[in-house]
Design a protein that fits this description.
With 588 residues, the protein is mainly beta. Among the domains are: 91-166, Sandwich (Immunoglobulin-like), CATH 2.60.40; 171-244, Immunoglobulins (Immunoglobulin-like); 249-326, Immunoglobulin-like, CATH 2.60.40; 514-588, Thrombin, subunit H (Beta Barrel), CATH 2.40.10. It contains three helices and 50 strands. Strands 8, 11, 12, 15 and 16 form a five-stranded mixed sheet that branches. It has a four-stranded antiparallel sheet with strand order 3-2-5-6, with no helix packed on it. The protein has a four-stranded antiparallel sheet with strand order 10-9-13-14, with no helix packed on it. Strand 44 (525-532) and strand 45 form a beta hairpin. Helix 1 (2-30) runs antiparallel to helix 2 (33-59). The longest helix has 29 residues, at 2-30. 21% of the residues are buried.
C-alpha cells in the first residue's frame, strides 16, 4: 500500500512539475532575467532527479533485463544470424583460379562448373566465377586429354583464389578375334560401348585408340547367341583371348486376323521354353538365341478368337513364322469333294457331316447343327459330333424342311406338313415353280409359270396374286422379293428383278446373263453365281454403286453363313472363304 501511495504522490508531483515547467516557460517570456535564471536552475534540478530515477530503474532487475535485450539485439543477434548462414543473402563470394597440369602447364578451354554456374579457362588457364554462396561445394573441371576433376572445396566469404591440377588420360588399344566353327558375318554387329567395330573375314577386330578404363563389348547376330562382356582397356596395345561365339537362331512372327490380315493386339503368348523372353517389337514378336535343332511351340490366346498352336524347328540364323493367323470364334460349313463339312473359320477342326450321303444341298443351320437335303431326305446333323437325325423322306425338288414350321411341299400345290397333319395353302391349276418364306415366318411368297402370289402360313386365308409374269423367286428382304426372269424360251440368260409388295417391279440387271442362286446380303448387296459356258463364278454386286466384285472361279456351289457373314465356295478339294467386303482366302 505504501508503494502505491508513493507512486500516486510521484504522479502528482510529476504533474505539478509539468504544469510548473509549462508556466515557467510561458512566464520566461515576460519575466526578468533573474527570474529566468531561477527557473532554469529549478529545471536543472528536476532533470537531475529524473536522471537519478532512470539510473535507479536500470539497476533494478527489470531494467537489467531490458538492457540485456537491447545488447542482444545490437550485438548477439547479428552473430547468431551469421552462425545460421542468413548472411549469405547479403554476403557473396567469388572464386578465381587457374587450371594446370601435374607438370604445371596451364590448360586453356577447360570447363569449370560449381553451383550450377560455368566458366571456361582463358589462354592462361585462368577463370573467375562470381556471385557464389560461401561454404562447402563440389567443383567439376573437365578438359580434353585430361581426367575429370571432381572434388569438394570450401569457399570463404568474399574472395577465394585457388589452383587446380588435372591428370592426363591414358590411352590403350585392344585386338581380339571371334571364334566359331564357321563365321557368318551377315547381320553380325560388334560394339564397344556405342562404337561399332569392323570385323575381318577371319573374325579379327580392333578397338582403335581408346581412353583407358572399363568397356562393354557387345555382339548381336541372329546366327549366334548374343554376347555382352566387360573388358579392361589398359595403357598401350594388348590382345584379348579368342572370344568363342555359339551358333543360335532367332524366331520372329506377327499375329494377324485370319480374314483381314489386321494386327491382333494384346494376345497372350506362351512360349514352350520358359527360359526365353518373348520381345514385342512394334507389330512383331521375337525370341532370340534359340538352340539350333530344337523344336519350340507357341500357344496364342486372344478373347474372341480360337486358340492357336504353332511350332518351329530352329535352324541357325533367322527363323520366321511370318503371319500367325488367328481365326475368330465360330464355325462355317462348306462343300468339298461332293461332301459337306463344318470347321473353324480357318478350316481347322474339320468335321465331315455328310458321310455316306449323296447329292446333299445346304438348307440352313442353327448354333448346334445344320439342315441338309440329300436327294429325297431331310437331315439335321450336329456341327461338332456329326450326329444325324432324319427329319423327312420322300421329298420333291422344291420341298424343304423349315424348323418351327414343318415340311413345306411345293409342286402341284403348296402344303405344310407337321406331325402328320397337312395344311393346304394353294391348289391351283399351275404348278409352283419357286417359293420363299418371309422374314417374320408368317407368309409364303410363291410363283407359278404366270404369276406371283402370297399366302399366310396358317392357311387362314386364300392366296393373293401380287403380279403377273414368270419369275423364279430367289430371296426376300423387307417384303421385297428378289427374283430372276428368263429373257428367252431357251431359259438360259435371265435378269434379276425386284418385286415389291404392291406388285410393282424393277429390273436390277441391265444385260441378261446366266444368274443362279441369288441372295441378299447385308450392306444392300447381292450374292450370286454367274455361268459362262460350263464354268460358274461367284460375285457380289453392290446395289448402291452397281459395282460387281468377283470372288471366285469354278464354283460348284456356295454357302452363306449369316451368323459369321462369310461365304464359302469351292470346286473339288479346294475351299475358299470370302468376306462381304470382297476378300477371298483359300483354306483347303
Amino acid at each position: 500500500m505504501d508503494n502505491l501511495y508513493q507512486q500516486g504522490e510521484n504522479f502528482e508531483t510529476s504533474k505539478e512539475d509539468a504544469q510548473s515547467i509549462h508556466t515557467s516557460g510561458s512566464a520566461m517570456v515576460n519575466e526578468t532575467p533573474g527570474k529566468v535564471i531561477e527557473q532554469k536552475s529549478k529545471l536543472k534540478n528536476r532533470l537531475s532527479i529524473f536522471k537519478t530515477k532512470i539510473i535507479k530503474f536500470l539497476k533494478s532487475p527489470l531494467g537489467k533485463v531490458i538492457i540485456l535485450i537491447v545488447v542482444f539485439f545490437f550485438f548477439a543477434a547479428p552473430i547468431f544470424l551469421i552462425f545460421l548462414g542468413f548472411d549469405k543473402i547479403f554476403i557473396r563470394s567469388h572464386l578465381q583460379g587457374v587450371v594446370v597440369s601435374i607438370d604445371d602447364e596451364v590448360i586453356p578451354n577447360a570447363s569449370v562448373k560449381i553451383q550450377g554456374k560455368e566458366a571456361e579457362t582463358d589462354e592462361n588457364g585462368e577463370f573467375i566465377i562470381k556471385d557464389l554462396d560461401y561454404g562447402k561445394w563440389e567443383i567439376l573441371i573437365t578438359a580434353n586429354g585430361y581426367s575429370e576433376f571432381s572434388e569438394q572445396i570450401v569457399l570463404q566469404r568474399f574472395s577465394n583464389d585457388q589452383e587446380f591440377k588435372l591428370y592426363p588420360q591414358d590411352f590403350g588399344e585392344v585386338e581380339g578375334k571371334l571364334s566359331t566353327q564357321e563365321l557368318k558375318l551377315e547381320s553380325l554387329e560388334l560394339f564397344i560401348n556405342d562404337k561399332k567395330l569392323e570385323i575381318a573375314e577371319d573374325g579379327v577386330f580392333k578397338t582403335g585408340r581408346l581412353i583407358s578404363g572399363s568397356y562393354i563389348l557387345k555382339l548381336t547376330s541372329p546366327y549366334y547367341k548374343d554376347l555382352e562382356k566387360e573388358i579392361e582397356i589398359k595403357s598401350g596395345s594388348h590382345t584379348l583371348e579368342d572370344i568363342s561365339i555359339a551358333p543360335a537362331g532367332d524366331l520372329k512372327w506377327q499375329i494377324v486376323d485370319f480374314l483381314n490380315d489386321s494386327f491382333v493386339k494384346d494376345s497372350k503368348i506362351e512360349f514352350s521354353d520358359k527360359n526365353y523372353e518373348v520381345e514385342e517389337i512394334e507389330d512383331s514378336f521375337l525370341v532370340r538365341d534359340l538352340e539350333v535343332g530344337n523344336t519350340y511351340k507357341l500357344n496364342i490366346e486372344k478373347e474372341g478368337y480360337n486358340k492357336k498352336e504353332v511350332e518351329s524347328t530352329i535352324v541357325q540364323g533367322e527363323n520366321s513364322l511370318e503371319k500367325v493367323k488367328l481365326a475368330r470364334e465360330g464355325r462355317i460349313s462348306y462343300f468339298r469333294n461332293g461332301n459337306v463339312y463344318n470347321a473353324n473359320l480357318d478350316g481347322s477342326s474339320e468335321i465331315l457331316l455328310s458321310d455316306g450321303l449323296l447329292g446333299c444341298k445346304y438348307q440352313g443351320e442353327d448354333s448346334n447343327g445344320i439342315y441338309l437335303k440329300c436327294f429325297n431326305t431331310a437331315y439335321y446333323i450336329g456341327k461338332l459330333n456329326a450326329n444325324r437325325s432324319t427329319l423327312f423322306t420322300g421329298l420333291g425338288e422344291l420341298d424343304k424342311y423349315t424348323p418351327g414350321i414343318g415340311l413345306i411341299k411345293a409342286g402341284d400345290g403348296l402344303n405344310i406338313i407337321t406331325e402328320g397333319e397337312s395344311v393346304e395353302l394353294y391348289s391351283g391349276v399351275e404348278n409352283v415353280i419357286s417359293w420363299v418364306l418371309s422374314e417374320d415366318r408368317k407368309v409364303i411368297y410363291f410363283s407359278t409359270s404366270s404369276s406371283v402370289y402370297k399366302v399366310n402360313v396358317d392357311g387362314a386365308s386364300d392366296s393373293e396374286k401380287i403380279t403377273d409374269g414368270e419369275f423364279y423367286i430367289q430371296d426376300i428382304s423387307e417384303n421385297k422379293l428378289l427374283a430372276i426372269n428368263y429373257s428367252s424360251a431357251a431359259r438360259q440368260e435371265n435378269n434379276i428383278w425386284f418385286i415389291f409388295s404392291d406388285g410393282t417391279k424393277e429390273r436390277v440387271t441391265v444385260v441378261p446373263e446366266v444368274f443362279e442362286k441369288v441372295q441378299y446380303i447385308p450392306g444392300n448387296k447381292l450374292l450370286y453365281l454367274k455361268s459362262s459356258g460350263a464354268s460358274k463364278s461367284l460375285y457380289i454386286k453392290d446395289l448402291n454403286t452397281t459395282n460387281e466384285t468377283h470372288l471366285n472361279n469354278n464354283v460348284a456351289d456356295y454357302i452363306y453363313t449369316k451368323s459369321q457373314q462369310l461365304i464359302t465356295s469351292g470346286m473339288g478339294s479346294e475351299v475358299f472363304v470370302s468376306t462381304l467386303s470382297g476378300k477371298t482366302i483359300k483354306i483347303k
